[in-house]
Amino acid sequence: MAYSTSDIRNVALLGQAGAGKSTLSEALLFASGTIPSKGEISRKNTVSDQDVLEKQHQRSLTSSILSFDHNSTHLNVIDTPGYSDFVGTAMSAIHAVETAVIVINAQNGVETMTRRFMEWARESGICVSIVVNKIDAVDVEFDEVYSAIQDEFGSECLAVNLPANGGTAVVNCLTGKEGDSDLGSVEDAHISIADQIVEVDDELMEEYLETGELPEERIAPVFKQAMLEGHLIPVFFTSAEKDIGVSEFLAQVAELFANPAEGQLPEFFQDDDGKKEQLSISADADKPLVGHVFKIAFDPFIGKLGVFRVYQGQLNKDTPVYIDDARKPVRLSNLYQMMGKQHTDVSEAIAGDIRGVAKIEEINQNSVLLTESSDNAITMQTLHTPFPMVGLAIGSANRGDEQKVAEALQKIAVEDPCIALSRNPAANETIMRGMGDLHLRVALERMKEVYSVEVTTSIPTVDYRETVTKLAEGHCRHKKQTGGAGQFGEVYLRVEPLPRGDGFEFVDNVVGGVIPSQFIPAVEKGIRQVLTGGAFAGFPLQDIRVTVYDGKHHSVDSKEIAFITAGKKAFIDAVSKAGPIVLEPIADVTVTVPSGNMGDIAGELSSRRGRISDTDSLPSGAVSITGAAPLAEMSDFQARLNAISGGEGTFVMEFGSYEPAPMDIQKKLSAEFQHPEDD
To answer: Which end of the chain is more exposed for a tag (fewer CB within 10 A), N or C?
Structure first.
């Protein structure tokens, strides 16, 4: 190994689609001498976007790992997609790095996804920096962009370099003081960032206040410390297309960004008899291996590929590795360093590095790799990816292809954390949910292009829920005599509503053995059967507490099946008296459109029973509209948005909450429902 942990820099490029992340990746590879010339997205020859669908769409659809050397530094740069539909793969990269680089289009300023990525990066506790790209574009208002960054993300966002000569050059204001830039005095910018970073070192601050000078050799340590403490978010100005500021940025990443031994490590937990205990880990090669799989891909040549980050220890090729809480180890005989779709065989992985491993079926998203067996499951603190809201019912277009369709769906769901599969037995539907129309369309294209399966699609049944609104009691005395051994079980229970989102709670308050303890699980089993299939309108029940408090049994005829039936019918009885209602899923929606379309979009959302909570004007001249709307009303919103905005509008939709459905819908659904006990 030609480098050590202290030589590694792990960086994720995050930001709105169109900010130029893939072009910046290409420029970094070129500046480092890794590639002889830069590829172009329009020519479909960039290192990052090598997937067949990425070439077709000319946009990043999944994260790409670029591992390369520059002078004495080894860089792992993760280029991520910027469209809201593909946030799952982008978010998965955040914990694998020490630094998130938020890339901003200088023409558009701070956009919707910029804010979200900044929020997620800060939430994870890693270092954050900003690259303002495309500074050579026409009509860029640098002062407006810079002010918007500081207004949105804080005064700790300070320039390390400044655009000059209309964005055709940059000047270093961290080490330099002389001259002017497109953002004013270089000396003023130097003083601002020097004042900020010396605050993390009392001794240096005292020296700086006395002399007014910041020794150049003292900059890197306090710069890193300020980033690690969240006291500094450095801002870099570049034009990746024209190679303006790129070499300087690359040099500053190597010199000023934290290495894996300095950065904050995510938290790992060990489940000890139901209690989570945090493990103490460090980027120490002499300690046992702790690694985490943050990406899964299916390569047509090497099969299933797991991409993992080593947090502690060292992994040599063919070392026995335990995956999660497995008792039997596997040998990782195929270790790779990755450069987009190109995989190079390597013999080891050291603490802090990112590697790929192939042909290990036991590895999945979020798997933890260990060299010591653990009796209890070990998990890593993970970011909560947005809940996929937009769904399609999927069927096989060709008879006999059902198994091929199921396998393709499973692979797509394994690759993408924001693709969810579910089954609706009542409607006989297999449902694939994603973040938006584009997300699902690309998944369908992948099934056809990569896995050679044709499917049919339809709008799925709305994912309604049931709950109760007041306390009520239910009772069932189940007695059955059919000649020979009979069945007997009697159950008294009460139901009551829980706060929205609290799920289900079962309470055993039976005293005196009136229902023997061995039959209590049977009562709960009967209740859970109704929870799944519904008691009022045929949808799963949630946000409800069930307390079993009395009953009777028979010494001969009481059996498990009797108490399952009694529990089920007593529960249905109680729900019918407890003010049952149907809940519908409500989506949080953020729409970005040209300002001239604001009124039309507001009206469109209102016509879909939507509520607008906020509007925000953006530097690009667009407006961001935030609100909420029933998911049932949003199935064709993308088409209407395109028609209204001429294809310039975008929207982000995430699960918000469940709220009572309109009364006419509740009555209709209830009337159509065939009660379980009516069968």
So the answer is: C
User: For residue 390, is pLDDT > 90?
Assistant: no
184 and 293 both lie in a single domain: no
Amino acid at 314: Q
- Is 408 within a domain? yes
Q: What is the CATH number of the domain that holds 425?
A: 3.30.70.870
Q: How many CA atoms lie within 13 A of 566 on its CB side?
A: 30
- Is 265 part of a structural domain of the chain? no
Query: Do the domain assignments include residue 120?
Result: yes
Q: Take residue 165 and report the two structure tokens written for it.
A: 């000569």
118-139 b/e with 16+ CB inside 10 Å = b?
A: bebbeebbbbbbbbbbbbbeee
- Cite the DSSP H helix spans in 235-348: 246-256
Looking at residue 354, which CATH number applies to its domain?
2.40.30.10
Q: Averaged over 260-280, what is the pLDDT?
A: 84
User: Are 356 and 400 in contact, with CB atoms under 8 Å apart?
Assistant: no
Query: Which CATH number do you get for residue 632?
Result: 3.30.70.240
> What would the pLDDT profile of 169-208 be if each residue is shown by its tens digit?
999 999 888 888 999 999 999 999 999 999 999 999 999 9
Residues 338, 310 share a domain? yes
Q: Is the pLDDT of residue 678 over 60?
A: no
pLDDT averaged over the chain?
A: 91
Quote the pLDDT of residue 188: 94
Instruction: Please check whether residues 406 and 315 belong to one and the same domain.
Output: no
- Please indicate, yes or no, whether residues 565 and 590 belong to a single structural domain of this protein: no
The string of pLDDT tens digits covering residues 110-138 is 988 899 899 999 999 999 999 999 999 99
Output the pLDDT for position 675. Answer: 61
Q: Are residues 562 and 587 in the same domain?
A: no
Reading the block at residue 460, the tokens are 């799925």
Burial class (CB in 10 A: 0-12, 13-18, 19+), 521: middle
Statement: residue 312 has pLDDT above 90: yes
352 lies in a domain? yes
Half-sphere exposure of 35 (CA within 13 A, CB side): 19
* Separation CA 277–CA 497 (nearest Å): 32
* CA distance readout (Å), 658 to 503, 578, 590, 632: 12, 18, 18, 12
Burial 363-376 (b: 16+ CB within 10 A, else e): bebebbbbbeebee
Q: What domain range includes position 660?
A: 582-665
> 489-533 pLDDT, tens per residue?
999 999 999 999 899 999 999 999 999 999 999 999 999 999 988
Q: What is the CATH number of the domain that holds 128?
A: 3.40.50.300
> Tens digits of per-residue pLDDT, 446-495?
999 999 999 999 988 888 999 999 999 999 999 987 766 789 999 999 99
Distance of alpha carbon 467 from alpha carbon 147, whole angstroms: 48
Q: What's the maximum distance between 2 C-alpha atoms anywhere in the chain?
A: 102
Task: Indicate if 149 and 181 belong to the same structural domain.
Answer: yes
Point out the domain boundary residue: 416, 431, 461.
461
Same domain, 23 and 155: yes
Predicted pLDDT at 1? 52
Domain boundary among 579, 610, 628: 579
**DSSP sequence for 517-564:** GGGHHHHHHHHHHHHHH-SSSSS-B-SEEEEEEEEE--TTT--HHHHH
CATH code, 535:
3.30.230.10
Total domains in the chain come to 5
Alpha-carbon distance 39 to 50, whole Å? 11
Helix (H) or strand (E) holding 258: none
Are 561 and 637 contained in the same domain? no
Name the DSSP class of 266.
Answer: P
